Amino acid sequence: MENAAEIPNFRPHEDGLETTEPFVLHEPAVHKAPLVFSSPHSGRHYPDHFLKASRLDQKALRASEDYFVDRLFSPVVDLGLPLLAATYPRAYVDLNREPYELDQRMFADRLPAHVNTRSVRVAGGLGTVARVVSENREIYARSLSSAEALDRIEHIYRPWHDCLRRLLARAHVQFGHVVLVDCHSMPSGIKLGKKGSVERTQRADFILGDRYGTSCTPDITDEAQIYLKSLGYSVARNKPYAGGFITEHYGRPAKGLHSLQIEINRALYVDEVTLARNEHYTQLKSDLKGLTQLLMQVSGDFQQTQVPLAAE
Fold first, then answer.
1. What is the CATH number for 155?
2. What is the value of pTM for the model shown?
């Protein structure tokens, strides 16, 4: 079996670790269940050159960050499961996109022919290298060169996905099937309107995304929903978040590879103005540990008869 040292850019599990490598892999000594966790949007290393190129300050750029999500799920490592976390923020490079979803309007020179410039996400300014952050705020004060975007994809995006594929393939060989749990947070729906008024859009505490049943067996999604509801949380499925590129790309149930996206309402654990953890953070972290233990049991009981997926 491939060990942690053989996976490029391995870093030990250490809360608050500072690194400029493409990712941090939190790896247990023994992988105990067919689960792999990923946190592609919790990266918080904002390079100086990026901040200088942006018309926004760092706090505004952080509006698209999944605050503390990698730390909320850190107990999974002690339970015997790997957690792959981003280093760089999604405003810099979005790991939950196709490798080449780019907006030609952002660039001073022509993009290569293989780039997808016409996706819905690109049209909304949210490609692999984003044009905007939340509430449609433009990130850059100048046009970029295509080389800048391609460099981020080559040196950050590709290594992260290479590592994720290896983790999934290794677990698939070990257990016969694997469930990828892709971890995210979402705005609460509360924002300041004109003249300081508060505008509210009611959102569930959790949204479980399985691409409407196509990326993960309903047995797993059902059990996760039942468990969270038993704790008093409100839970929705697939609306408005059914799962992004990661869920769709890696979720192939017919081959024994399941992918479930979890979106957590940020108001459950953080002050969205100050970005400080609130008094419910510790309880939520404990509840997510309980959810993980349930998923370990459910995924362990799940029988998969497909031929093992070869390492890609």
1. 3.40.630.40
2. 0.89
